Amino acid sequence: MTRVISISPTIRHEGKSGLVLDVDEKGIVTRGDWVGLSPVRGIERFCTGKKMHQVPKIASRTCGICPVPHVLAGVGAMEASIGCEVPKDALLLRRIIHSASRLSVHALHAFMVLPDLYYPGTDTRINPYSPEPRARAIADRIQRIREIGQDCVQIAGGEAIHPGNPRVGGMYRNISPQAKTKLFDLAKEGNVLAHEHLDCMLALIRDFSRREWVEIGGARVPVPKNLGYHNQGYLATDPLYGTSSLEEHPSFDLARYAEVSPEHWYRGPGEVTYGDPTYPGGGTLPEGTAFDPAREMCPAVPIYDGQPVEVGAAARLRRFSNFDEKGTIGQLVARQMECIPAVTELEDCIDRLNPAGAVRAGTLPPGDGKPGWAANEAPRGTLVHITRVKDRKVRFFKMIVPTSWNMPTAGLALAGSPWQLAEFVIRGYDPCISCASH
Amino acid sequence: MGAELGKYKSCVSARSTDKEVLKYAQDGGIVTSLFGYALDTGIIDGAIVAANKEFYAKYPSKCIQDSSNLDMIEPWRPIPAIVNTKAELLAAAGTKYNISPNIALLKEATRSFGLDKIGIVGTPCQMQAVRKAQLYPVGMRDVGASIALAVGIFCMENFPYQSILQLVEDHAAMKLESVKKMEIGKGKFWVYGKRGQVVQLPLKVTHKYEQPGCHVCLDYVANLGDISTGSVGSPDGWSTIFVRSKIGEAVWAKAIADGVFETQPIEKVKPGLELVTKLANEKITKNKNTLEARKTFGVGKALRNPYI
């Protein structure tokens, strides 16, 4: 007999979301719907008519964890539409803040999943807030990595959260030689810590993948080997930075993309038939609670070749580095593995940066309404901003956000897992619901 | 009254022992020498100062002035800049009697300039801004902890650029380009020309050119600086120094030990603290009255009072 369980809100990720799960008698999910509940702010709509310089700054406010990709995709899209080439050193500064922010966001996600993991070889969960030395060693390192990442974004981008330095046509300012030295020191320190962090996280994730069961709400829940598997395919445009329609051979095909309303992928109205008050954090929703995922879902559903796809660290490594591990464990491993290329890229770009170089293109064309788009490989996957700029004003603005791609995919990936692990599965996608709704 | 000079640990009359600094300095070369010393000893790794057009021409990347057209920048308009060397400090020395928004660089100093330990010089209101940014950092992430040395300068009032233009070019009948130094002292506004001309204007004529915002200011001797300095109270070529905070005390003691300054006890010099106190009292009393008048400015309506 099928029971319907709903977990709402879900925790330890950005934004507000809920899960509606059809569950068989063994507690295995047969159909999952992951519903984004962060209210739509309507950024695409209210940016229409605003100046091209303002829109990336507004888009940045979509999300405070990944403002960097939004601001970079925003300025990139404006530049693609007006047809403006960015000076080399400006691009390097952008790559610096991009890789530094990826480093710190991935480290933050490690913090989010730590409470799901166990100390290797034990049945003790990790509490990153505990004063115990084992937990502190992990948590302090993560904090320092994040500090380094944010300091780098702050120096090169003007501000760690909502960087003010990027502008249409390049950057406002180059950095001083003194700042370059400081960046380099930070990156060197980050490199060492990122390697230690990777070793530590891989050990924890590998240990988790060998476990037969985990304890949730006092009960032993079996961990399936195919946790979070799906057949939806993967999308990535670049291992590190991104692409745009200015490029000769852009690695993203806008023609294969479409956006549909949630009705196409989400279930209709119904009500909860089973409530579990022992589920951690106050229980699941009580029996009789009405839901309507197709209508409650705030983000729209982007599809590629007619299907939802997975984007993110695992998709990037799969496409560009022959990574072949699937499912939630694969995502967790891939995400932590990406910290190293991020920090290497950071060092490399700092090295190549000329502090005396020009960072602003000359006169900016006002734009003639030609469509332009820029994809940025945000920490959570492919972020695309599409725009049409005419007379320096934005006539059309559209954001395709990583978590929007991932939400329907993750819903499909829930099937086959015990319902208690559903939150762990969606956490594997490092969701950012504010981004998805925008 | 009695609190008009703020809290301080010691007060002396001093001047730099560096002859080169004295050549460029307004008075005793305190700010230039102090920042030079702090840069040399690693107390600060950069300082925010008020530079000028010539400085900008020489070191454009040190300023946030956003104009590549030098002709657009007027002579004697201060441009906030970040300096890292003695040569840059000397290029920025000297008082400019109009508004220099030094705090505009405060956050940027910790960003693209990459400073960890900032030195900043400013008028009393700018010291207030620095302290407020430290205690209530609204949009000032990581700024507070980066401020290593705040040097305040005495300030009676300031002028908008247009006022200086009018005072110098109309009242003193001198082209701004030909001015070597300006000074307010001994009840006069002095303008020294590069060819040796000296013009003095009675302060009475300058009053209507003052920046209106200065009329509610209740701070004369930069009460919130780590160290405050100004010309009043000391003889020509010397400065009066208040050493106020622990940071100020430590830096000052080291600088004295290293022979950066020569000092005289303030009690030994003329006119001494008595004049400073008198002028501070005058400023505060006058401006308190302005504040008071704002309460009943309209009929049944007041103008805002930022102090309450």
TrEMBL record, chain A:
Mg(2+) binds at E44, M399, H438. Its EC number is 1.12.98.1. Ni(2+) binds at C63, C66, C432. Keywords: Iron, Magnesium, Metal-binding, Nickel, Oxidoreductase. GO terms for molecular function: coenzyme F420 hydrogenase activity; ferredoxin hydrogenase activity; flavin adenine dinucleotide binding; iron-sulfur cluster binding; nickel cation binding. InterPro entries: Coenz_F420_hydrogenase_asu, Ni-dep_hyd_lsu, Ni-dep_hyd_lsu_Ni_BS, NiFe-Hase_large. Pfam families: NiFeSe_Hases. The keyword Phosphoprotein does not apply. SUPFAM superfamilies: HydB/Nqo4-like (SSF56762). Fe cation binds at C66, C435. It comes from the Archaea. It is an enzyme of class 1 (oxidoreductase). Its cofactor is Fe cation; Ni(2+). Belongs to the [NiFe]/[NiFeSe] hydrogenase large subunit family. This is Coenzyme F420 hydrogenase subunit alpha. It comes from Methanoregula boonei (strain DSM 21154 / JCM 14090 / 6A8).
TrEMBL record, chain B:
Pfam families: FrhB_FdhB_C (PF04432), FrhB_FdhB_N (PF04422). Its EC number is 1.12.98.1. The keyword Iron applies. The keyword rRNA-binding does not apply. GO terms for molecular function: coenzyme F420 hydrogenase activity; flavin adenine dinucleotide binding; iron-sulfur cluster binding; nickel cation binding; oxidoreductase activity, acting on CH or CH2 groups, with an iron-sulfur protein as acceptor. Keywords: Iron, Iron-sulfur, Metal-binding, Oxidoreductase. Residues 116-268 form the Coenzyme F420 hydrogenase/dehydrogenase beta subunit C-terminal domain. Its cofactor is FAD. This is Coenzyme F420 hydrogenase subunit beta.
